[in-house]
Amino acid sequence: MSQPVSANLQNRLQWSLFSLRLGIFIVFFMWTLDKFINPAHSAIVMKAFYGISGASDTIFYILGALQLLLVLAFVTGIKKRLTYGIILLMHAASTFSSFPRYIDGFNNLLFFAAWPMLAACIALYLLRDADVKLTVK
Predict the structure, then answer these.
(1) Three-state helix/strand/coil letters over 62-98
(2) Which long-range contacts (CB under 8 A, 24 or more apart) does 5-14 make?
(3) What is the mean pLDDT of residues 11-18?
(4) Which is nearest to 21 in space by CA: 124, 114, 118, 92?
(5) pLDDT over threshold 70, residue 2
(6) CB 84, CB 125: distance < 8 Å
(7) In the chain, which ranges are continuous DSSP H helix?
(8) Comparing C-alpha atoms, which of 76, 55, 54, 77 is closest to residue 64?
(9) Domain chopping of the chain, boundaries
């Protein structure tokens, strides 16, 4: 028989999940801004990591607008199953598409930061129902 969760533990869990959500949001928000501020960089990333080339700046502006809606819904906790799931899938795709960088790890150390963020995305998705701090009801 499980013990009830103490109010103190519940509060710490909620703040911990909020901090994960906020940290993930900051990374995704910067990636989103990059599509608007420097679409040429987005084109380089798409070609290098996903094998997609030839997209116009307009495509990146549209992708940026859609991603902005997603990350704002994510950070406010709207439709958690959907938004947290999409964020998890997007980050997993980003992490796994970088696999060749991990082979030459010491020349690509910053790429390893993707793994703890992926773990944070997984934890947040699995605990989404407990993530209620500063969310839209």
Answers:
(1) HHHHHHHHHHHHHHHCCCHHHHHHHHHHHHHHHHHHC
(2) 13/127, 13/130, 14/130, 14/131, 14/132, 14/133
(3) 98
(4) 124
(5) no
(6) yes
(7) 7-37, 39-50, 57-76, 80-97, 99-103, 114-126
(8) 55
(9) 13-130
Burial class (CB in 10 A: 0-12, 13-18, 19+), 45: middle
Give CA torsion, residues 23, 25, 30, 35, to 10 deg: 160
Indicate yes or no: pTM above 0.90.
Answer: yes
Q: Can you read off the two tokens belonging to residue 4? A: 């009830």
Q: What is the mean pLDDT of the chain?
A: 96
Segment 29-49 mean pLDDT? 96
Sequence length of the chain is 137
**What phi, psi does 70 have (nearest 5°)?**
-60, -50
